[in-house]
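Issue 218. Parser rejects a valid record. Input:
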Amino acid sequence: MTSSDRTMLEWESPMYREAVGQFDQVARLMGLDENVADRLRFPQKATVVTFPFRRDTYRDVETLFGYRVQHLTTMGPTKGGIRFAPDVNLGEVAALAMLMTWKCAIVGVPFGGAKGGVRVDPLELSRAELQRVTRRFTMEIINVIGPETDIPAPDMGTNEQVMAWLMDTYSQHVGHAVPAVVTGKPPALGGSVARREATGRGLMFLLPQAAHHVGFDVAGARVAIHGFGNVGRYAAVAASEMGCRVVAVSDITGAIYRDDGLDVASVAKWVDEHRFLEGYPDADHIPGPDLFLVPCDVLVPAATQGVITRENAPSIQAKVIIEGANNPTNLDADEILRERGVFIVPDVLANAGGVTVSYFEWVQDVQKYFWTENEIVGRLREIMTRAFDDVLSIANSEGVDMRTAALIKGIRRVADAKLVRGIFP
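Output the parser choked on:
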């Protein structure tokens, strides 16, 4: 049995197979030393926990599963979100940790990749239940996280408040406040003033470069966004501010479409008041999957993984896809879209704005010196646009697509660090 076979047994899942398959393709193209490649297929550390959880009714005690995976500790502390979702599993978390490693390396952030999660549906939890899950999970993983070892952040199903509870639980345990143990927390606790919108804003920083490369104007460009959470919502706001027409957005209740462009501020206000897009009065309501079929120049998958498939890829009308979610495009769909000439800005580059501003937040917490919002946004724009230029340069020189070029950049940086550090003992 090869080491790759053993990997699949430990972390078997479709998402992990895709992440490793993607890595293997690029590693072969690069001629990466097989010893280094084999090492990078494995997460360096994986923690699996189970813990009791009691509902507000106090009738039953459930057992929840939680995970924290640290893919790479070579570059510095590990960094990655914690998601609460009913289908979280070890394979998914391991795959996302690997993708986070490449993402950090692509934008030059000195972290390795990590990811965590709890298998629970946050939509079914009261605020008190959500707090109990968060605090107990924090205690279960408290020995593997820390400001110099592994720094969590929000992800699907978690938010600023969850990070505040995590930070408070950790701080109570060690006996003093440790703001740098998490990022994405409220500004009152040392959070970055621009963290919440960083991923969505970072996506849109790349739109002018992508539009210039493909050959269309940003002003008046039609944008469709799958998802209206933190990423999709702020991508929609940024796109609207740039003069784009946001023609469609979606959430778990379905999608809304308006040919002449949605009033993004009105949509955001509706969601603030009603939680979901369902019932929004000033647009046509269409099934969620139909968002991928609407006429548009730019498609932003900003919700969850695996939503662009071989079934819907032939019908996508966008000229540019900017991936806000992690791993939203299946490998088969990726090939179909490339053959059709669709320009894809891959997730490991496009949504790196979140981890970039998380890095800024961590630096500020460690130094206890805080930057203005203009400083943060300016530095984010500089890092994202420079990373795009670097990846496009590799794509042109190597004759490859942007996803492959981004992974070449990230994997090469990690491999170089591995070789320089050597093997202990």
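Fixed in the parser; the record now loads. The CA atoms of residues 346 and 403 lie 5 Å apart.
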